[in-house]
Amino acid sequence: MEHYTIATVAEQHSDFRRVLWTGKHSQLVIMTVPPGGEIGEEVHEVDQILSFVSGVGEAVVSGDKRKVAQGDLVIVPAGRKHNFINTGPNPLVLYTVYAPAEHADGAIHRTKEQADAMEEAGKDEPPSS
Length: 129
Description:
Elements: H1 6-12, E1 17-22, E2 27-33, E3 42-43, E4 47-54, E5 56-61, E6 64-69, E7 73-76, E8 81-86, E9 92-99, E10 108-109, H2 112-120
Antiparallel strand pairs: 1-2, 1-10, 2-9, 3-8, 4-7, 4-9, 5-6, 5-8
């Protein structure tokens, strides 16, 4: 069994993206977006469920915009363009479940720039089935 007190994990790690667990059909990732930052507009070929732990921001999915805050959950179906933007003065902390996995098992990206560079270099590929 894997068990996480997600708020505690968020307090302990301020990385932009940290893969906490990767299974056969899904993956759990925690993200911290700094004030004024964003995840960046993207499209995945996997489903994604995001749950917001702290901070405030804006979710943009297929052009639809909504405010997000602690306790909110957003579902992004595969193939939908999306972005999440921190609009508050504190970090926007969330965890996301990808189904299937989207990132390399155990990946830790301290900043968005590092995450982008790893993806571009092909060093952030999910495990193969």
